[in-house]
C-alpha cells in the first residue's frame, strides 16, 4: 500500500540510514535515485515523484537531506508524503535538528523509531510525545523494561494517563496569517486568511475541553444570528477533536495532548482592505540607474500597531551603489538576495510612509533575463484578528474537579503576502 | 605487493575484533559491540560474517540490545538462511514474553524474515498473537498476516489466518481494526484470481465506520481506502456512509481528506438520482480541496493532480474557485504547471478575462518551460471558450510583439490551432506572423508557420517566395517541417498554379528523390501522381475541409477517468494511468470502476411475478402503464447482472420512443410504392450484413407451406425477405400477413401481393417494413410474431429480427455531443463485452460497421491500444454509444456500450459479432 523502504540520503545522494519494510526490492535501487533526479532537473521536469521501470521514488527535501520512500505498488501517495513530513517532524522533536550529524549521533534511536513508526509500509504510531515514553535516547535503565504506553492503542492515542501539574493552565494563541496576491495594477487577485489556534496545555489527568468560538453557523443555528460572528469557510482539526460531534452541532470538544500543539486551522476568503498596502514606482534607466519610490500604507484601525514590519523589494542582480532615503525605519541592501529590506519597528494604523532608493546599473547588461519577483511584506499585529474571530469560552472539566486558567492571545501576521511589480 | 593488503588486513582485523567483543561476557561490552556492528552495517559494510556471534546475543533481557539484534537478523537472514534457523527458538520464546512490547517485536520481526524455513515456525506464534490480550500485540500480528501472505499465500489460507483476520475487524480496539482492514485490503488486492478473497459485509462496514472515529489518522486512511472498494447495497446505505464520512473532510491530515473525497465521489455516483443530496455534498467538497493547496508542496502536487481528475469528472465542484489556482512566484515549478492546467480546465466565459490577464503575466516570467505552457494555455482557452477567441488572439499578438524568441514560437504553434478551430476569421494577423519567420528555429514552430502559409497561400502575396526560402535548406529540416513544406507547396500550386509550377516540381523531386524518409517519399509520390493524373481530384484531396479541433482532445478517456477516480490519492491518480500500466504482475490488483447506480432488486423480483396477460393489453397503447407492461423477466447477458432499474428510463425510452416515432420514421421512410424497384436498383452498393435465411415455418406445420426468411436493410428501407415453398399438392393463393405488436413497432408497409404458388414451386418475396406499428415490449426484445394466411389456413410463427436492421442511417453524433452524452449516461448503464477471434484493425472494423449503420465518431491510440468510438441510433430514437478497445496483434477486444436503454446491449453485441465475423 505505501512504502517498501525508507531512506535518508545526504545532499549528494549517499545513504545515511535506511530501513527495508517489505523486502520486495533490493535496497540498492536507491542508486538510481540521484541520477534520475539530476536528469529530471536538467529537463525541467522535476516532480516530487520519480518513476523508474519497476519502482517509484517519492521524496521530500529538508535541511540538505532527502527523505525517500520507494514503492512498487499503486501506493496511496498522499499518505506517503504526509508521512514523510511526519518523520521529519518526529525526528526534529527528538533531536532538535534533523541533519547529517544528528543522524549519525543517534542511529540506534532512529532505527528504533523507524521500526515503530511504520510496519510493512503501514504508518503506525507517529505521535512523538507518546513515542518518547517508550523510545528514549539515553538507553534504557538496566532493570526496568519499558512498557508500551496505553495511549499507543487507545482511542486517545495522543495523551497518556497520570499527567500531573501543580498549576493547571492553558494558553490559547489565535494566529491569523493573511495571504495576499495583488497584480501590478494594484488589483487584489486573491486575499485569504489562514487562521490557526495553537495551544499549550499544562493540565493534569484526562481533561475534557470545550472551545466556544463566534462561529456564524453555530450562531445562526442557535438563533443568535445577529451577534458578531465569523463564517469559517473550511476548518481542519487536530485528531483529538471529535469530528462527528462538530459535524452535528459545531461543538469543538476534545481531550488535548499534553504540551504544545495546533488545535485547529481555518480558512476564509475576505474582501477587507489589505492591511498594509504598497505602492511602488520603479523607474529603470537601462545601463545607468534604477530608482524606486515605495509608499507603504497601513489600512487597519488606529488603535492597532503593526510590529516588525519588513518590506522586501527585489532589485536587479547587477545593481550597485545603493542610496536610500526614508521618513521612518531603516533600509538595508542584501545583495545575496537581490533585494532591499525596509524595516519599520512599529507601524501604527492609518499611517503612510515613504522610501526612496537609488541604484546604479552597469553599462554592460548581464545576459540572463531576470524574473520579476514580487514585493513581499512581513508584519505582526498583536491583539487583533482580521476575521474578527473570538474565543468565547474554553471549558475545562476533569474528574478531580480542579480549576484551570485559560489564557488567550490574538495576533495577525503576514502569510504569503505578495504584490507584483511592473 | 600493493597497498591493498592493508585494507584487507584492516578489514579482517576489524571483523575479528568485533567477534571477540561480541563474545565478551560483560553485557555492556556486548551491547557496544552490537552497536558497532550495526554502525558498520549502516555505512554499507558487509558484516554478515558475524552472524552466529550476533545471534548469540539474542537471548537478553535488554530491550535495546534485542532490537539491534533483530535488526541485524532482518538484514542478513536471507543471505544466511541456514543459520537463521538458530534464531527461531528465541523468537518463539519471545512471542510468549510477559512484556507485550517484546511479544509484538518478535512477531513483527519474524514476519520480516523472508526465509521459508522460518516461516513454518511463524504460524503458531502468530496464531497466538492474533488472540493476544494486549491490543498492541494484536495490531502488530494483524499486519504480520499480510506479511505472511506476501511470502506464502497458501499458508495463510490453509492455516485459517484469513478468518482470524476477519474476526479482528470486530475487535474492540480501533487500532487493531484499522490494521486488520489494511492487511485485508492488501491481501484482496494481490488475490491471484482477481476476485477479492474477503468481501466486506454491511455489518463489517458499520464496525469500520465506528472505528473510523477513534483510530489514528493513518488508521482512518486505511479504513477509508477499504471503504472505497465497497459497493453499498442501496442508496440508503450509500447515503448513510456519506453522512458518516463527511466529518473526515475537516481532518488536518491531507491523506485523510483525500481518501474521504475518494469515497464520497464514488458514493455520489450511486446517489446520482438524488440531485439535492449530491449538490449539498458537492458544496462540502470544495473548501477542503482548496485548503489542500496550503499544505506542503509535495502534498499540493498530489492534490492538484487529483483535482485535475475531479474537475473533469465533476466540473461543478470547483467552478467558482478559479482564483485559488493562480500561480505564486515562489511555487515550485511542478506546482505551477499543474495549477496552469487546472486554470484552463476551469476557464469559462465568466472568468476568461481574469484568466487571460494572469496567463499574460505568466508569459513574461523567466522560467522557459512555464512561459511556454502559459502561451499554450492561451491558445487552449481560445479553443475552449469560443467567445473569448478574439481576446486570446490579441493577447497572443501582444506577446509576439515582445519578440522573446520562445514566446513567439510557442504563440505561432497555438495560432495554427486557432486557425484550425476558427477558419477564415483571424487571417488578418498572418502578416504579423510572417514578420517573425526568420526567428523561428524550433521544428514545431517552423512546421506550424509553413502550414499557415500553405493553408492561406491565396491570401499571402509572397507565399511562393516564403516557401521557396524554406526549400533552400530542405534537407536539413526536421521531418515534420519537410512534410509540412511538401504539403504547403502543393496547396500553393493548387491555389495559384501560375508561376508555382517550378516550385512544386522542385519540392516533389526533393521529397521523392533526395530523401530517405519513407513517409516523405510516399507522400511525395502520392501528390505527384494525383497532380499528374487528375488535378481536380488532387484539389479535392489536398484542399479538403479539415475536421475542427476541440478542447476535448486533452480530456481523459471517460472510462479511464472513471477508473482513475476510484484511485484518488494513489500513484495512479498522479500518473493519470491505470495501475496496470506501472505495477507489475498480480499486485496490480483488480480493475476498479465506479459503481453501478443501484436499482432496487426487490422491485424487480416483485414485478416478475405479475407478468400481465398480454392479450389484456392488446390495442391500448396509450393507456399502457409502465408497471403493468414491464415483463421484467431477466434479460440475457450482462444487462441482467448489473441491477438496472428496468422500470426507470430505459423502458420509457423504448416505449415512448416507439410510439412517438410514428411521425419521424414515417417521414424518413420513402413512399412504399416502387420500393421493390429501389431495392433492386441499388443492390450493387455495399450493404448491411443480412443473416442467411432460416426456416421459420416448416412444411409440416404450415400444411405444406414452408417459409425460410431473414431480414435486411438497404438504403434505409427494412424488409423481410422470405422464400415461400409449396410442398403441398395444390396451389396456394390469397396470401396475407400480419404482425403482432412488438418492441420496435415493426409492421408491414403494405399487403403481400404474391402470385399464386404452384405445387413444388418456390418464390422469393420481400416484404417492405416500417416501424409505425403498435409497440409492446417483447422478450427477447427482438422477437417478432408473425401470422401468415393463405387459402388453406392461418399460420403463426415467431422469428428474431437482427437488431442491425433497426439501426438508422442518421446514427452519427458530433464528437462533442458524443463525449457529453457518454459522460451524462450513468455508469450503471455501461455494459462490457469481450470479442474473441477478432481479425483486422480499427480501420477494417470501422469500415465494416459503417455499412451497418454503426458510425465511427473518433479514433485514438492510448498507450498502444486503439480506441474506436462509435454510435448508432435505433428506429425508436434510442442512442447507443460504443467504445471498442483493441490492441494491435491481439485477437480479443473489449467493447463497452453505454445507452439510456441498456436492455438493447446483448442484441447490439450479437449484431457486432455477426458483422465482424461475416462481413
Question: Secondary-structure map with pairings?
Answer:
The complex is a heterodimer of chains A (422) and B (919).
Chain A: E1 5-10, E2 15-20, H1 33-43, E3 49-51, E4 56-62, E5 65-71, H2 77-95, H3 100-105, H4 107-117, E6 118-119, E7 122-123, H5 128-134, E8 169-182, E9 188-202, E10 208-213, H6 216-221, E11 234-237, H7 243-249, E12 252-254, E13 259-269, E14 276-285, E15 289-298, E16 305-314, E17 320-326, E18 330-334, E19 339-348, E20 352-360, E21 375-382, E22 391-397, E23 405-419
Parallel strand pairs in A: 8-23
Antiparallel strand pairs in A: 1-2, 1-5, 3-4, 4-5, 6-7, 8-9, 9-13, 10-12, 10-22, 11-13, 14-15, 15-20, 16-19, 16-21, 17-20, 18-19, 21-23
Chain B: H1 4-22, H2 27-42, H3 51-56, H4 63-76, H5 81-94, H6 100-112, H7 116-130, H8 135-151, H9 153-158, H10 161-168, H11 174-189, H12 202-212, H13 217-227, H14 235-245, H15 254-270, H16 275-291, H17 297-313, H18 333-346, H19 352-362, H20 368-384, H21 389-401, H22 405-421, H23 430-435, H24 443-455, H25 463-471, H26 479-495, H27 501-513, H28 518-533, H29 535-542, H30 558-565, H31 571-575, H32 601-609, H33 626-629, H34 638-641, H35 649-668, H36 675-681, E1 694-697, E2 705-714, E3 717-726, E4 736-739, E5 747-748, E6 762-770, E7 783-789, E8 794-800, H37 815-824, E9 830-835, H38 842-851, E10 855-862, E11 865-873, E12 879-886, E13 893-899, H39 905-918
Antiparallel strand pairs in B: 1-2, 2-3, 3-6, 4-7, 5-6, 7-8, 9-13, 10-11, 11-12, 12-13
Subcellular location (chain B): Endomembrane system
Main location (chain B): membrane
Domain Clathrin adaptor alpha/beta/gamma-adaptin appendage Ig-like subdomain (chain B): 689-798
Amino acid at each position: 500500500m505505501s512504502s517498501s523502504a525508507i531512506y535518508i540520503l545526504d545532499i549528494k545522494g549517499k545513504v545515511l540510514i535506511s530501513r527495508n519494510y517489505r523486502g520486495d526490492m533490493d535496497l540498492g535501487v536507491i542508486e538510481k535515485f540521484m541520477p534520475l533526479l539530476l536528469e529530471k532537473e536538467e529537463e525541467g521536469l522535476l516532480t516530487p515523484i520519480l518513476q523508474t521501470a519497476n519502482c517509484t521514488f517519492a521524496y521530500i527535501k529538508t535541511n540538505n537531506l532527502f527523505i525517500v520512500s520507494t514503492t512498487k505498488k499503486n501506493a496511496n501517495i498522499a499518505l506517503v508524503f504526509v508521512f514523510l513530513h511526519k518523520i521529519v517532524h518526529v525526528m526534529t522533536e527528538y533531536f532538535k535538528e534533523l541533519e547529517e550529524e544528528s543522524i549519525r549521533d543517534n542511529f540506534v534511536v532512529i532505527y528504533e523509531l523507524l521500526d515503530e513508526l511504520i510496519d510493512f509500509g503501514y504508518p503506525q504510531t507517529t505521535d512523538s510525545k507518546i513515542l518518547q515514553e517508550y523510545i528514549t535516547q539515553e538507553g534504557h535503565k538496566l532493570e526496568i523494561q519499558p512498557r508500551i504506553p496505553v495511549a499507543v492503542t487507545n482511542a486517545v492515542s495522543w495523551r497518556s494517563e497520570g499527567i500531573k501539574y501543580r498549576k493547571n493552565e492553558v494558553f490559547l494563541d489565535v494566529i491569523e496569517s493573511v495571504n495576499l496576491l495583488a497584480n501590478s495594477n494594484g488589483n487584489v487577485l486573491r486575499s485569504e486568511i489562514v487562521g490557526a489556534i495553537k495551544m499549550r496545555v499544562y493540565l493534569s489527568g484526562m481533561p475534557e475541553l470545550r472551545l466556544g468560538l463566534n462561529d456564524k453557523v453555530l450562531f445562526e443555528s442557535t438563533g443568535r444570528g445577529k451577534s458578531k460572528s465569523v463564517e469559517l469557510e473550511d476548518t481542519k482539526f487536530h485528531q483529538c477533536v471529535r469530528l462527528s460531534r462538530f459535524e452535528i452541532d459545531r461543538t469543538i470538544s476534545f481531550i488535548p495532548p499534553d504540551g504544545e500543539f495546533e488545535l485547529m486551522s481555518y480558512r476564509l476568503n475576505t474582501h477587507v482592505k489589505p492591511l498594509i498596502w504598497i505602492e511602488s514606482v520603479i523607474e529603470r534607466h537601462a545601463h545607468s540607474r534604477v530608482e524606486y519610490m515605495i509608499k507603504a500604507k497601513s489600512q487597519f484601525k488606529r488603535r492597532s500597531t503593526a510590529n516588525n514590519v519588513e518590506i522586501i523589494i527585489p532589485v536587479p542582480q547587477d545593481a550597485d551603489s545603493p542610496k536610500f532615503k526614508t521618513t521612518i525605519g531603516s533600509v538595508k541592501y542584501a545583495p545575496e538576495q537581490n533585494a532591499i529590506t525596509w524595516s519599520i519597528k512599529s507601524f501604527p494604523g492609518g499611517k503612510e510612509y515613504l522610501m526612496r532608493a537609488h541604484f546604479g546599473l552597469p553599462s554592460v547588461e548581464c545576459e540572463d533575463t531576470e524574473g520579476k519577483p514580487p514585493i513581499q511584506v512581513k508584519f505582526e499585529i498583536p491583539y487583533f484578528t482580521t476575521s474578527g474571530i473570538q474565543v468565547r469560552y474554553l471549558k475545562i472539566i476533569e474528574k478531580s474537579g480542579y480549576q484551570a486558567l485559560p489564557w488567550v492571545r490574538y495576533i495577525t501576521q503576514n502569510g504569503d503576502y505578495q504584490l507584483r511589480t511592473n | 605487493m600493493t597497498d591493498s593488503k592493508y585494507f584487507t588486513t584492516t578489514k579482517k582485523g576489524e571483523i575479528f575484533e568485533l567477534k571477540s567483543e561480541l563474545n565478551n561476557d560483560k553485557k555492556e561490552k556486548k551491547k557496544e559491540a552490537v552497536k558497532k556492528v550495526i554502525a558498520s552495517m549502516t555505512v554499507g559494510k558487509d558484516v554478515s560474517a558475524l552472524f552466529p556471534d550476533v545471534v548469540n546475543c539474542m537471548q537478553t533481557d535488554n530491550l535495546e540490545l534485542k532490537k539491534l539484534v533483530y535488526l541485524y537478523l532482518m538484514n542478513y537472514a536471507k543471505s544466511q538462511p541456514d543459520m537463521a534457523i538458530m534464531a527461531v527458538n528465541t523468537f518463539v520464546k519471545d512471542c510468549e514474553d510477559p512484556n507485550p512490547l517484546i511479544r509484538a517485536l518478535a512477531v513483527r520481526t519474524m514476519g520480516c524474515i523472508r526465509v521459508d524455513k522460518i516461516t513454518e515456525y511463524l504460524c503458531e506464534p502468530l496464531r497466538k498473537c492474533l488472540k493476544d490480550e494486549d491490543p498492541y500485540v494484536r495490531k502488530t500480528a494483524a499486519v504480520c498476516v499480510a506479511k505472511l501472505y506476501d511470502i506464502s499465500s497458501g499458508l495463510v489460507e490453509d492455516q485459517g489466518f484469513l478468518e482470524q483476520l476477519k474476526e479482528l475487524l470486530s475487535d474492540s480496539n480501533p487500532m487493531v481494526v484499522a490494521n486488520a482492514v489494511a492487511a485485508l485490503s492488501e491481501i484482496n488486492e494481490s488475490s491471484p484470481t482477481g476476485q477479492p478473497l474477503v468481501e466486506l459485509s454491511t455489518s463489517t462496514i458499520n464496525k469500520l465506520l465506528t472505528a473510523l472515529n477513534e483510530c489514528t489518522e493513518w488508521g482512518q486512511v486505511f479504513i477509508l481506502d477499504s471503504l472505497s472498494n465497497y459497493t453499498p447495497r442501496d442508496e440508503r446505505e450509500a447515503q448513510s456512509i456519506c453522512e458518516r464520512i463527511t466529518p473526515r473532510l475537516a481532518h488536518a491530515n491531507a491523506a485523510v481528506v483525500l481518501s474521504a473525497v475518494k469515497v464520497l465521489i464514488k458514493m455520489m455516483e450511486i446517489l446520482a438520482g438524488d440531485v439535492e443530496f449530491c449538490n449539498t455534498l458537492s458544496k462540502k467538497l470544495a473548501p477542503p480541496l482548496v485548503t489542500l493547496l496550503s499544505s506542503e508542496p509535495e502534498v499540493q502536487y498530489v492534490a492538484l493532480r487529483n483535482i485535475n481528475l475531479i474537475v473533469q469528472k465533476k466540473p461543478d465542484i470547483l467552478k467558482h474557485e478559479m482564483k485559488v489556482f493562480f500561480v505564486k512566484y515562489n511555487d515550485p515549478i511542478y506546482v505551477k504547471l499543474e495549477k496552469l492546467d487546472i486554470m484552463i480546465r476551469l476557464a469559462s466565459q465568466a472568468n476568461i478575462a481574469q484568466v487571460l490577464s494572469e496567463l499574460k503575466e505568466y508569459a513574461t516570467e523567466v522560467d522557459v518551460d512555464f512561459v511556454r505552457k502559459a502561451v499554450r494555455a492561451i491558445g487552449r482557452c481560445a479553443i475552449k471558450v469560443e467567445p473569448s477567441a478574439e481576446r486570446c488572439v490579441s493577447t497572443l499578438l501582444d506577446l509576439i510583439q515582445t519578440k522573446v524568441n520562445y514566446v513567439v514560437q510557442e504563440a505561432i504553434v497555438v495560432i495554427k490551432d486557432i486557425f484550425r478551430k476558427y477558419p477564415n476569421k483571424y487571417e488578418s494577423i498572418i502578416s504579423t506572423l510572417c514578420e517573425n519567420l526568420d526567428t523561428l528555429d524550433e521544428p514545431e514552430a517552423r512546421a506550424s508557420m509553413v502550414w499557415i502559409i500553405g493553408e492561406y497561400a491565396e491570401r499571402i502575396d509572397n507565399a511562393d517566395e516564403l516557401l521557396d526560402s524554406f526549400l533552400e535548406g530542405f534537407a536539413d529540416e526536421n521531418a515534420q517541417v519537410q512534410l509540412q513544406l511538401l504539403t504547403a507547396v502543393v496547396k500553393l500550386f493548387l491555389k495559384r498554379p501560375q508561376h508555382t509550377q517550378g516550385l512544386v516540381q522542385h519540392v516533389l523531386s526533393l521529397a521523392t528523390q533526395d530523401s530517405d524518409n519513407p513517409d516523405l517519399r510516399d507522400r511525395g509520390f502520392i501528390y505527384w501522381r494525383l497532380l499528374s493524373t487528375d488535378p481536380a481530384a488532387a484539389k479535392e484531396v489536398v484542399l479538403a475541409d479539415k475536421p475542427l479541433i476541440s478542447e476535448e482532445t486533452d480530456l481523459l478517456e471517460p472510462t479511464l477517468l472513471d477508473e482513475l477516480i476510484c484511485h484518488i490519492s494513489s500513484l495512479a491518480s498522479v500518473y493519470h494511468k491505470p495501475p496496470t500500466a506501472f505495477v507489475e504482475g498480480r499486485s496490480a490488483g483488480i480493475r476498479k470502476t465506479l459503481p453501478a447506480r443501484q436499482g432496487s432488486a426487490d422491485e424487480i423480483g416483485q414485478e416478475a411475478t405479475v407478468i400481465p396477460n398480454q392479450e389484456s393489453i392488446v390495442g391500448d397503447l396509450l393507456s399502457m402503464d409502465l408497471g403493468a407492461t414491464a415483463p421484467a423477466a431477466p434479460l440475457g447477458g450482462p444487462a441482467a447482472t448489473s441491477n438496472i432499474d428496468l422500470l426507470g428510463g430505459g423502458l420509457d425510452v423504448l416505449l415512448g420512443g416507439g410510439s412517438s416515432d410514428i411521425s419521424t420514421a414515417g417521414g424518413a421512410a420513402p413512399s412504399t410504392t416502387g420500393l421493390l424497384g429501389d431495392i433492386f436498383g441499388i443492390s450493387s452498393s455495399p450493404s448491411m450484413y443480412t443473416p442467411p435465411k432460416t426456416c421459420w415455418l416448416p412444411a409440416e406445420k404450415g400444411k405444406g407451406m414452408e417459409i425460410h426468411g431473414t431480414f435486411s436493410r438497404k438504403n434505409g428501407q427494412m424488409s423481410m425477405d422470405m422464400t415461400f415453398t409449396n410442398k403441398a399438392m395444390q396451389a396456394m393463393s390469397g396470401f396475407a400477413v400480419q404482425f403482432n405488436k412488438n418492441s420496435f413497432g415493426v409492421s408491414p408497409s403494405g399487403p403481400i401481393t404474391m402470385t399464386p404458388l404452384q405445387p413444388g414451386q418456390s418464390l422469393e418475396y420481400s416484404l417492405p417494413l416500417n416501424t409505425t406499428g403498435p409497440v409492446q415490449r417483447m422478450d427477447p426484445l427482438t422477437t417478432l410474431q408473425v401470422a401468415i394466411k393463405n387459402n388453406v389456413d392461418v399460420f403463426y410463427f415467431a422469428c428474431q429480427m437482427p437488431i442491425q436492421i433497426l439501426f438508422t442511417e442518421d446514427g452519427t453524433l458530433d464528437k462533442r455531443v458524443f463525449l457529453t452524452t457518454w459522460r451524462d449516461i450513468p455508469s450503471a448503464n455501461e455494459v462490457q463485452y469481450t470479442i474473441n477471434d477478432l481479425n483486422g484493425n480499427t480501420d477494417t472494423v470501422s469500415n465494416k460497421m459503417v455499412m451497418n449503420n454503426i458510425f465511427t465518431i473518433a479514433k485514438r491510440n492510448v498507450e498502444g491500444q486503439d480506441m474506436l468510438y462509435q454510435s448508432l441510433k435505433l428506429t425508436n430514437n434510442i442512442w447507443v454509444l460504443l467504445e471498442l478497445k483493441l490492441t494491435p496483434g491481439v485477437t480479443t477486444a473489449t467493447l463497452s456500450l453505454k445507452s439510456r436503454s441498456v436492455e438493447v446491449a446483448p442484441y447490439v453485441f450479437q449484431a457486432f459479432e455477426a458483422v465482424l465475423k461475416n462481413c
